[in-house]
Design a protein that fits this description.
Helix content is about 45%, strand content about 15%. It is α/β, with parallel strands linked by helices.
Length: about 400
Amino acid sequence: MAHHNLAAQLDTLERDGLLRRRLTLEGAQGAHVSVDGREYLAFCSNDYLGLANHPRLIEAAIEGMRRHGVGSGASHLVTGHNIAHDRLEKKLADYVQLPRALLFSTGYQANIGAIAALVGRESAVFSDKLNHASLIDGVRLSRAEAVRYPHGDTAFLEQALAKSTARQRMIVTDSVFSMDGDIAPLPALLDLAERYDALLLVDDAHGFGVLGPQGRGALAHFGLRSPRLVYVGTLGKAAGVAGAFVAGSPDVVETVLQRARTYIFTTASPPHLATALEASLELMQAENWRRERLRDLVAGLRAGLRGSNLRPSDTPVQALVVGGNAEALALSDAIRDRGILVPAIRPPTVPEGTARLRISLSAAHELADVARLVDALHATLPETPKLATVT
């Protein structure tokens, strides 16, 4: 009977407009992709700087395979830690201006591993209500007391910190919230961490490479420095490759290395990805025009959709809230019929009743691409006023 229960659960997901389906790309990631033999203009990717298909990264990966092979063959703490990994960790630490960095295979592993390594049963973790699933799961696995505070509500957070009797405290937050695009009040959060003797873990998945001078991330964006900071950067988004890293004080990073189960008990990522990431870091620092273009694209989109339900955001993540699941799916399908891919995001990824189109901008887009998207949305959203033109 068990498989019948599973089938019924899947039927319920489909009825409620919550069944997820994959798109299969027939080529490289980019602003224009091929799916089922048709070319689309895509606003789906987290490849914010347009580096995922860059020739220099491809060449660096190929050279890395020639030198180090294809697979790492073991965990980092056995024989899987390659000189390419070691060199990349040093360059990542230098890039984000923190003493030390530790490489992980994925951002999910980095968040789960870091939280569970740094806090435990006698700890309390204070987590923003809109944090990414990997942060939520990390708190659960740590077995610490979990305190969720309303999104961005530092007054509520301060009250909760003041009441806490836990031996250890940690505040956990996204930097850029992945479904809304807004930026956490990191200076205020760090001030609370300092005053209430807490660590502050910042998941900069959507800020690394995009925010701050030379794309050095959310901490550099605000000019923040403190030994209380635990920084998690993702390498599969703006950096265009794969993986993640945890950076911070030597004691913090060494503790994560010694205790993080997602680091200790998994095979190290292929070394050629590390060589590709070295090339990515060089481009991220040198080519500021990519971040400048993103700012222009964000401004153009927001001007074109002024008066719509576009959530406040100055980042490449732009959320157009629709409401119902069926309505969000219908709008996504209507846009797809016009040759444009924009994903419909539904619960549990976002709160009930706030299903949306999540528009992801990339430096690989042109202003003409944004103008085409705006025109398509105006045509399919008749209730949206005819407003500014993207120029």
